[in-house]
Amino acid sequence: MLIAWTIGDINGTGPEIILKSFREFAGCPARPVVIGSRDALCHYRDRYNLDIDVQTVSSPEEARRLDASVLPVISTGEPPLPPSPGMISESAGEIAMTSVRTAVELCMSGHVHAMVTAPIHKEAVSRAGYAHSGHTGYLAELCDTPSPTMLFHDPLSGLNVALATIHVPLRSVPGLVTSMDLERFIRDLRRSLQTDFGITDPSIALLGLNPHASDGGVMGDEEQNLLEPLVESLSGEFTIDGPFAADGFFGAKRYTGYDVTVAMYHDQGLLPFKVLAFDTGINVTLGLPIVRTSPDHGTGFDIAGTGAASPRSFTEAARLAATIARNRQQTNQQINRSTNQHPL
């Protein structure tokens, strides 16, 4: 199995965590191929005195033929100057996004089985001429998938948090929640948990939109008009409870009783998640025709170039990508066997 690791922003910690993660993966069945800049990887390898052989390849097939101790790189462009840790750069933004596009193309064509993305910097990406605020929107465009789901997973505790809305202003959240097809969102999420995570019958907790889940309508009516009826209509088919007041829900650790918690907006779900799983959290994009994971942290400009970056979240993201890819393969094999046994 071959997995594409995109380099992220070369002025951030992406190259460093990739190099450190590779040491954990040398000899593993799920082999990485980095998409990005060989020069940047070699710059940081030499900076930190890491004994890693980095070689340029032209294709995934060539990467497979290399010894497992070699880190292969498909170059999508080299920076005009050596990396400048902590600096915002147009060229760094271009290399980051070109790497993502190339990895998606390799996944869609079946040449690699999954992709893991190192962090990008939104301002650098903007300077390079991209309108996307992050990976998710760009991946949705490249894969022609209008509404992918952001799921955050902690492999240590098993905590899963899914976001109903993603990178939008807080003032836009109520309108988006009331206008979206929330029932379809939940059904798609449940199906992804079954296929990608191998959870046979996922249990779902739904958070309220308003403080204290509106306290019976005192602080808003979205719970009474939308969320409560939705839970009631779906609870006959599978386990779904709520809407819960977010603060008490996490404070009392009620999330431990569910396979996934659905948050209505970004900070409602990500603030408690990062408190609980900052070093090990993984971002998974569900609903795409490809497998994509990433570490749940940013570019780390404040520590870039110091050698202090932890590879743990990226390493866990790479392991999860391999697991999801295998789960999808097994599901497809079961479907094919069923189809062959019961042809139309």
Describe it.
- The chain has 2 domains: 1-145 and 288-344, Isopropylmalate Dehydrogenase (3-Layer(aba) Sandwich); 149-287, Isopropylmalate Dehydrogenase.
- It is of the alpha/beta class.
- The chain has a 12-stranded mixed β-sheet with strand order 3-4-2-1-5-12-11-6-7-10-8-9.
- 42% of the residues lie in helices and 16% in strands.
- The mean pLDDT is 93.
- It contains 12 helices and 12 strands.
Topology record:
Blueprint: E1 2-6, H1 14-25, E2 31-36, H2 38-47, E3 53-56, H3 60-65, E4 70-75, H4 90-108, E5 114-117, H5 122-127, H6 135-142, E6 149-153, E7 160-163, H7 173-179, H8 182-197, E8 204-207, H9 222-234, E9 240-244, H10 246-251, E10 260-263, H11 266-277, E11 282-286, E12 292-295, H12 312-341
Parallel strand pairs: 1-2, 1-5, 2-4, 3-4, 5-12, 7-10, 8-9, 8-10
Antiparallel strand pairs: 6-7, 6-11, 11-12
